[in-house]
Amino acid sequence: AEYEWTFQTSETAGEPQFEVKKAWADSIKTMSDGRIAIEILPVNAVVQANQTLDAVSAGILQGHLTDPSYFSGQNPAFGMLGNLVGAWGDPLEYLEYMQHGGGEELYNELVEPYGVHLIGAGATGLESFVSKKPVRTVDDLKGLKVRAPEGMVYNIFQKAGAAPVNLPGSEVYTGLEKGVIDAADYTVFATNDDQGLHSFAKYPSYPGFHSLPMVAVSMNKGIWDGLPADLKAIMESATDAMAYDMVFTLKARDIKAVSAARANPDIEVIDMAPEERAKFRRIAQQEWKVWAEKNELTGKVYESVVSFLTDRNLM
Amino acid sequence: MDIATATMLLVGGIFALLVTGLPLAFVTGLVALAYTFGWFGPMALPLVTSRVYGFVTEYSLVAVPMFVLMASLLDRSGIAKDLFNAMRVMAGRLPGGVAIQTIVVAFFLAAMSGIIGGEIVLLGILALPQMLRLGYDKHIAIGVVCAGGSLGTMMPPSIVLIIYGLIANQSIADLFTAAITPAIVLMASYIIYVLIRCLRNPSLGPVMPEEERRASFQSKRELLKAIGVPAVIAGLVLGSIYGGVASVTEAAAMGSFGVLVAVMLRGEFSITLMQRALSQTMNTCGMIIWIGIGAAALVGVYNLMGGNRFVSSMILGLDIPPLAIIMVMMAILLLLGLFLDWIGIAMLTLPIFVPIIVQLGYDPVWFGVLFAVNMQVSFLSPPFGPAAFYLKGVAPEGISLKDIFVSLLPFIAIQLCVLAMLLLWPQLSLWLV
Amino acid sequence: MAEHDVASPGLPEASDDHDPNLGTRTPLDRLVGKGTRAAAWLVLLAMAISVFEVVMRYGLDSPTSWVHETVIFLVATSFALGGPAALANNRHIRVRVLYDLVGTRFRYVLDCFNDVMTFVFCLAMSYAGWVMFWRASHSPLGEWQLERSGTSWNPPFPALTKGVILFALAVMTLQALWHLYQTFFSPRPPEGGSEGSGASDATSDAAPDATADHKEPR
Ligand code: NA
Ligand code: NA
């Protein structure tokens, strides 16, 4: 092939997102008539998940398909664009914002100084909240020991009265099983179910209410800038198609797993009432304001999201 | 250069550098650097240090210094000596009794930790010198420490199985359940082996003379105290894990805190003792961690070179029956185990193997247990046997790496037998799931 | 040479007259040894705050936001600094099959080769570590800005950890250079046969032992 690249993802090889991403690379190969061949590698294959930005920027990797929350420590704007907790009721709202509400332009303003270019945004879908205790209302979060990783999710749970615990992903399983934590911000329903979390965390929330991570498809800016226009167009349209493919593939899996879980008398799948979701979103909004103050870019993200949501009567 | 040649040169380079006596920590790291530089140029060199950063900030490794500190404190106080004296009394007239008890202790340790390293160091500092002091055969003592100390990744909680579950997207609960029986079979086989050897030749595990036995502990109370302190500490760690008090990693810290309190209560605490224990912890961890750092870097480079694609196409290109493909995978795992540590092997092979296993219609949970047993072998197998290196780092002088590897051979043979049993009889692991 | 200087387990009274952590080959090694003694207390601190977190979370239902990240940072620091510490004490594990088979002259060649290789490794790693640290301590526009963890507490631990790694590698480079210098400029050993494989583990650097520099008190 004319162009041979290696892109790293933020999933293990067994997760369904990984297959969707491989399909993306295949379709680019087909559309470009074999001129672009992209190798998709699982998380940690070349560098750690939170080091891929540096690796793409240095040209060690040519690109990555990842959750930008990993880079919140470089600039909090990554956390805001990558997972604005409580903002989105549906992944399609988020994709609309990124593609037609100015989100992708802002993301490129953030990431281009690193020598990285965003080809397009995707999303996984609302993550399910796994819990050992029923969380039907925002009040039920009081005192709940919930695992919360990097990004804004920690502060929002704290504001909602929970007792967030900063625990790495590899400790979630045993931590939940033995009761070190009561609940976790982890991943989508079907994957939680595959890993066996619901056998002891019997009160999952579906659809989730708290977290919708972005899938940022980006590559080294130098390489991108040197591409002919036809290949750029191919990359962009393949990425937009992948965004919808990802959302609907995961949704289909979730629905199947949810109906199996509903049939299981031991598991109670909780669908939080709309007024409670609104209450959680109001708490989250206070935290967005705090983050808006952090730098010029986080301020811009805040303005842009709020005006998008207000225009569509979602605030 | 194509990837096949590069792979062969890579393996050859590692072995050549190993033989010159270059420290292992630098062997794999140097090969990683050379390949990064040669394949991708100087711009890519930060990849290697990025792997170093990733490796040292791995949360599950936090348990390693905690276990080493625990061991060092137990050893420097009189607790370890008392415990093994008591164990010797309790072993009574059974030849090899203390070695068998050590295996049982190792099994309990396995239930409280998820990684090896800390455990082997703990047993190497505590049990090995004690067994040698009691006149036990060097080879039996070493084998028991390394094989027993490796059980931590077979028994739940096990970070190997957790990582497998995450990579293969399998139920970690099922993996834990499936691993229990094989772990017990391994432990029982080690015990039977030691028992047979010592019954046939009692001088390998000498029994305490009757009069010494009567004299050593005047009262039952003293005996109970010697056993009681370590038992309370073990209870603290196990209780905090299984009671949901602490994460597996925090539990190791709880354990070393418990030991520190015990040392204080015995009136043995001093700043000098603490300093020596901490210095030993730091040195030992430096030795353990730097071995892993090189291997981690190597895996990153190899993946970037397309090594995973190479391995995968090699397997898929084989036109042989399914069981033979599994055997080939086992062979690859064992081969990699000769010169990589388990994290590297898992990162390299599982993303390739697991989809093939599913495609062939085998149970990925069963394969996870096979993987864990394979890793048991890789911990012991020369020339890159992490268990042997960890033990070498703390073993009394006069014990060479050669001694250690020779001692491990029968235990490796046992592990291979258990592996074969699991291959032919999957129900051995799956009957509980 | 100091592989057996590790406090002999089981016999604390025999080993306690010698501090196992004093470096053995050069004054720099001894300095590193002293530094290690101080840095080793970080492990105790990590243990103490882990226990604190458990008490706060389980006992008082108020988990901290800072313990896990701090513990990882402390332990990562002690891991990184363990590299120079183990180099100072010659505690890095090596395979000695060939070494034990050959005579002193060839051992000297092996020593030279290994010292060169160790130096090359440390130097290249230091360069890579420098690039990594520079990226972690500067914004894309080139201003001083420490990479943070991105959590609620958001400490600059990623940048600091990378700085510690760079420091450890730089120290190892200097140590390795000094070892190299010593090996090259020490009087060459006379040609001799294998020095009895039974004592193979007692000394790992037979040749440098001939120089006065290496006759440090044990
Ligand atoms: Na275990
Ligand atoms: Na091995």
From TrEMBL, chain B:
Subcellular location: Cell inner membrane
Alphabetical keyword list: Cell inner membrane, Cell membrane, Membrane, Transmembrane, Transmembrane helix, Transport
Pfam (any one): DctM
Membrane topology of the entry: Multi-pass membrane protein
Residues annotated as transmembrane: 12-40, 52-74, 98-128, 140-167, 173-196, 223-245, 251-273, 285-305, 325-358, 365-384, 404-425
Domain TRAP C4-dicarboxylate transport system permease DctM subunit: from-to ranges: 12-428
Gene Ontology MF, one: transmembrane transporter activity
Entry's Gene Ontology cellular component terms: plasma membrane
Keyword Lipid biosynthesis: no
Function: Part of the tripartite ATP-independent periplasmic (TRAP) transport system.
Assembly description: The complex comprises the extracytoplasmic solute receptor protein and the two transmembrane proteins.
Protein family membership: Belongs to the TRAP transporter large permease family.
PANTHER family attached to this UniProt entry: SIALIC ACID TRAP TRANSPORTER PERMEASE PROTEIN SIAT-RELATED, SLL1103 PROTEIN
Name under which the protein is recorded: TRAP transporter large permease protein
Organism of provenance: Cobetia amphilecti
TrEMBL record, chain C:
Role description: Part of the tripartite ATP-independent periplasmic (TRAP) transport system.
Stretches with biased composition (Low complexity): 197-210
Membrane topology: Multi-pass membrane protein
Top-level division of the source organism's lineage: Bacteria
Region (Disordered): 1-27, 189-218
Keywords recorded for this protein, A-Z: Cell inner membrane, Cell membrane, Membrane, Transmembrane, Transmembrane helix, Transport
Main localization of the protein described in the UniProt heading: membrane
Residue spans crossing the bilayer: 38-60, 66-87, 108-133, 163-181
Domain named Tripartite ATP-independent periplasmic transporters DctQ component: residues: 47-182
Name of the protein described by the UniProt record: TRAP transporter small permease protein
Compartments, record wording: Cell inner membrane
Protein family: Belongs to the TRAP transporter small permease family.
Organism: Cobetia amphilecti
Keyword Iron-sulfur on entry: no
InterPro entries: DctQ (IPR055348), TRAP_DctQ (IPR007387)
Subunit architecture: The complex comprises the extracytoplasmic solute receptor protein and the two transmembrane proteins.
